[in-house]
Each structure stands twice: as C-alpha cells, then as structure tokens.
Amino acid sequence: MKNIVLLTGAGVSAESGLATFRGPYGLWEGHRVEDVATPEAFRRDPGLVHAFYDARRARLETVKPNAAHAALARLDAEWPGELLLVTQNVDDLHERAGSRRLLHMHGELTKGWCLACGERFRWRGPMGEDACCPSCGEQGQVRPDIVWFGEMPYEMERIDDALQACDLFLSIGTSGAVYPAAGFVQTARHCGARTLEINLEPSLGSFMFDESRIGKAGELVPEWVDEVLQSAHSRPISR
Ligand SMILES: [Zn+2]
C-alpha cells in the first residue's frame, strides 16, 4: 500500500468546538445556509455574509487542533508513500497541527479573494464590506475565499488524479451528503482502492466502504494512524 487519499469533513472540526456545517434543523449558527453561503446571498446582502464569516474567522482564534488533526499530521510527516489530505473544512486546524500535503477543496476562512483583480491572499481579522485589496488597492471587492453552494470546489482535477492513483481512501467525519466529495469513495473504489470511513454514525454512503469504524475521530484516527504506520514500518515499501 503506497498512496493514501484522506478526506476530512465537519465532524473533525466539531471535536475542536467548531459548529458543524449543517445543524440538526438545517441551520448554521442560526443562519439558513442559503442566506450566508451562496453567491446570491453575497450579492443580496454582503454585510450579513461578511459578518457571518468574520465571526467564524474570529472563532478560529479560540479553538485548537484535536487528536485527529495531530494524528493526520503525524501520518503526513512519516508516511513514505504519496499522501493527499483533502479537507472540506474551511478552518486552518490541519495546518496548525502540522499537515503539509493538504488541499482545501471548499476554500479557507483565512483567505480573501479580490473580485476586481482576481488575487487570493491571507486574511486575518475582520474583512467586512469595505475591505481593501492588498494587491490592486480596490475597496469593497474582497470576498471570503470560500466555495459557496452553487460554486465549483477547488482543484477537482488534482483530487480526481489522486483518487484514481490511490491504494487506500479514508473518509473522516463527513456525512456523505455533499457532492462532489460524497462521490470520492466511488472513484477510489472503482480504481481498486481499499476504502474506510471513520464517523460518529454510518454515513449516507456507508455501504460503499469496505470498512466503517463508528466513533469519535479524536479516538479512532490516532488508533488507525498507529496501525498504518506500524504496518508501513514492518514491511518495506516497494516503489
Ligand atoms: Zn484586487
């Protein structure tokens, strides 16, 4: 087993205290998804959308990576083969834990995107409607660099290539409800990978996985990383 693709979702961040993407009543911290997470919402009421993401960006400062983030960073550092961690999460907890081979398919809370010049850049603190682009200087054209509902996730080609080449696909803390991420398991399976999910409850696509481990990511991911690294160290990887 050489190539690993990992997919993480809201469940991993939830164990650090960040609200999950959709609450039990379809709300996200009191807001309907269509009021804060679509391009239409941003056109209609940019102030509300900025306030929502500014609050989430501020909340990031108050949380820490958990044992699942730490274990995945350790795997990244020690795994001798190819590895790609694809996260649906827009927080920076994987980076803060030390993950390097990482891709944010739904964008990042800590980045802005200028609609005037197209540049993307780091952003700390509140953004608001009057934010000034550090690249072109235009004011009021900066949006959170977040992939909203109805927009195309980032780097799908690179993700698809990695899925087709992987030997093991692991999905952690995702509901299996949001496409295209929900379809990754099918691609990996179709291309011959072993598939495993770790989730608090069986996901919607649970039947597509070779194995499901049900429980907290903060407990099950470190156990799984130990198993994988032990097997890698006891059997030399053929390249
Ligand atoms: Zn600009």
Q: Topology, pairings included?
A:
Layout: E1 4-8, H1 10-14, E2 27-28, E3 31-32, H2 33-36, H3 39-44, H4 46-60, H5 67-78, E4 83-87, H6 93-97, E5 102-104, E6 107-114, E7 120-122, E8 142-146, H7 156-165, E9 168-172, H8 184-190, E10 194-199, E11 211-214, H9 217-234
Parallel strand pairs: 1-4, 1-9, 4-5, 9-10, 10-11
Antiparallel strand pairs: 2-3, 6-7, 6-8
Bound molecules: zinc ion.
Roughly how many Å is the radius of gyration? 18 Å
Return the string of H and E elements: EHEEHHHHEHEEEEHEHEEH
First-residue to last-residue Cα separation: 10 Å
What topology, given as strand order, has the largest sheet?
A: 5-4-1-9-10-11
Q: What spatial form do the alpha-carbon principal axes imply? A: elongated
Bound molecules: zinc ion
User: Mean of residue pLDDT?
Assistant: 92
What's the total count of β strands?
11
How would you characterize the overall build of this protein?
The relative contact order is 0.19. The longest helix has 18 residues, at 217-234. This protein is elongated. The mean pLDDT is 92. The strands form 3 sheets. Strands 5-4-1-9-10-11 form a 6-stranded parallel β-sheet, sandwiched between helices. Strands 7-6-8 form a 3-stranded antiparallel β-sheet. It has a two-stranded antiparallel ribbon with strand order 2-3. It is α/β, with parallel strands linked by helices and 239 residues long. It starts with a strand and ends in a 5-residue tail after the last helix. The chain is built from 9 helices and 11 strands. Helix 5 (67-78) packs parallel to helix 9 (217-234) and helix 7 packs parallel to helix 8 (184-190). The chain binds zinc ion.
